[in-house]
Amino acid sequence: MTRRSRITGIAVAVCALVLVTSVAAELSMVGPQITEEPERSLSVGDIDGLTAVDTPGNATTVPEEQRLDRASLPERTPDNGTYQSIVIFRNDDIQAGYRPDRMRAVDNVFINESVPVTNAVIPRMAGENISDTETCSYLIELKRTHPKLIEYSLHGYTHESVTDFHGGSEFGGVPIDEQAARIARGKAILEACTGLTPRTFVPPFNTYDANTTAVLRANGIETISDGGWFSKEYYNRTDAAPFVARGTTHLPSSQSFIRNWSTDEFYSQQYLREQFDRSYRNHSVYVQMLHYPSFDTPAKRAQLRSLIRYMKHKPGVKFMTVDEFARGVREGTITHTPDGWRYSNATTEATANASGSSPLANTSRAPVETVASNETTVRTVARTPSQSVGRRTDG
Fold first, then answer.
1. Beta-ladder partners of 342
2. Which sign, positive or negative, has the C-alpha torsion 227, 229, 233, 237?
3. CB neighbours of residue 286 within 10 Å
4. CATH number, domain at 249?
5. Which of 27, 28, 35, 118 is the most buried (most CB within 10 A)?
6. Residue of higher predicted confidence among 115 and 246
7. pLDDT tens per residue, range 45-71
8. Phi, psi (rounded to 5 degrees) for 241
């Protein structure tokens, strides 16, 4: 072997060592190393054990005096009203430092219209925790100033597509231990930022599996808002209506603003109104999904405002957040009636005795029902990591 060949060989070996070290460091940041696991069912002990997963040491905490305290913030409460339809707006992909002007502009549409919105927050993007950024300060001030209009939902951990589960997923098909690590770390970062523990979960790419719901319940999160198409595929649903499975409330999105994800082309106003009208006629819950980065022009934000005002002018429409609706159903303050929805301080039993209805009454039309799910522990599949930094996806 020549001296040049030996030098070349040494250089290649050094490069390989650096690459392996880099990959190992990255894996240590996002959770346990990826391994193939056999299928196994979850026991009570499994679920209880998931709450003890270590949280990231680099989840910088915002000074306590700046963080929010849920006990001091006014909550949205029952108003003893009866409504024909309930509307929920879900704004995905809130992330640190990406298009902040658009983020504020979209938030202002909801604030100016006095309509609540669930903002789904990505805790960590491009190796940076949102708790370490100026975006965190903005989120705190937004919630402090408009506590009844803003909800922050946990939107995964890093919004990576790490498996091909149902077209791509950060959680579906991922070993349960890694799912537990991702959710615990994401939750810790969001808590370190705002001071608030998230009550709801929006899965990146609208996909997840049975292990995800088990881990979420172990972390005190009992509500998921995914994609209507996914609920139809995974739970064998015939529609995108809310439902309850294994103690978790599911609120699938009914409609997206975006028609073409490659060009960010929107659906027409006429089409969006028709989709809402159909839900309105059926006394349903309508979850409108949007992604703030796509509203890059005043004209597009005007479309959002126009749709909101169209809904507001319909009699008997109640706007809520994902958390408000799910908690109301669980606590019995939201009940389904033949004519729509009752939102009162009465318990489920009292309301049922007074009106002859129940949360599950008229199940042919009622958007909330308890179903037997086909959830099973899933196997690990091939992984091709792909982070959605600065791009909008379906979820």
1. 82, 335
2. positive
3. 24
4. 3.20.20.370
5. 118
6. 115
7. 444 444 434 444 455 566 666 778 777
8. -75, 155
